[in-house]
Amino acid sequence: MKRIWLWTLSLSLFLISCKKEEKAELAVGDWWAKMDVSAKDALPVTFYLSKDSVGDYQIELYNAEEVILIDEIEFKGDSIRFNMPVFEGYVAGTFTETEIQGSFVKESLDRIVPFSAIYGKRDRFEIGAEPKVNISGIWETHFDIDTDEDYPGMGIFMQNGNLIKGTFRTLTGDYRFLEGVVNGDSLKLSTFDGTHVFLFTAKVTDSTLNGIFYSGNHSVEKFVAKRNEAYQLPDPNTLTYLKEGYNRFDFSFPDTNGNMISMSDERFKNKPVLVQIMGTWCPNCLDETRFYVDYFKKNPDLDVEIVALAFEYAKTKEKAEQGINRLVKREKLTYPVLLAQYKTSNKRMANEKLPMLNHVLSYPTTIYIDRNGEVKKIHTGFNGPATGDRYKDFTKEFDETIRELVETEDESAK
Predict the structure, then answer these.
(1) Domains in the chain and their CATH numbers?
(2) How sure is the predictor about 413, in pLDDT bands with cuts at 50, 70 and 90?
């Protein structure tokens, strides 16, 4: 009888232990999340949670036409962490089947934004009133007004009923895929792409926008805009140039294996070269990188060398190199990415590394060099897919420029 009792007790303890070790589950389907950018304002975003063919969770995060796949999701008890693709940011917290409570964290910048999500399909922003205006079109914009840091932008929007899609262009690129609503005379737009936490709110009329731009919970800028279909930003090919006294662009930086790579290396001799000034933390740089990878994959006959110079804000060299290697692996880069700087992405310090440039105004910036080593053009910033026709214009211009570089005769061979 004692043996039977002990066997029954052991079986009960085993079953209890198994029950405790059962993995908690998240509800599969549509979710709605918010990120608190101030005490009263929150940035909303929607995503879809599913399981892949082997049962691992994955997230599709939505910003207008953009879909971001998040497939690095870790669990420990009731804790969850999902890492953003390419970028260093992550969401960490606790969960139940239908809720997630935690924070979005960017460790290198010591930034933490409260994050929460609930299961169920709902609109990104609530639609509460008929729109009083239609803001479709081009808007001449100024950000960070009433400060010494005032800078220009261009709003590009398409409105369908209450719903808005579009972006803001600036001298350094675009604010990527924005999605939102107009309720009455109030505009709200947001994007969360794995690193940017952007919320725009504004009061609107037929001809003006007066608003606030939140970048996470660390930056708040006032902005104004007026409708102007003829407005154009300065030509991005004129903003960065070689300083007087310099006739070449040179660099010498290590790759992640410690090998020094320089413009004078044999691999670049007598070939057109694109030098991409970028950072693995930069969404516009990622857009540009993906464009380059796709373009040269479709045009393998064009013999052009590419090299990227990464200016990283990761706190250690090891972390910076990890970020570079992650980018190379996930985006299948076939060209070298060199570590030009770490601990800061400060543009003034970047300019000290590249003294031949009048300034490093933007990440990304691309230097176009012909096979004779002559700088033919420097393009500041990148107008990505969110800019619509501007992106199409850039792709056409890029193709024309590359083909001109390839056709340049090698003077040394004469």
Answers:
(1) 29-119 (2.40.128.120), 137-227 (2.40.128.120), 252-413 (3.40.30.10)
(2) low
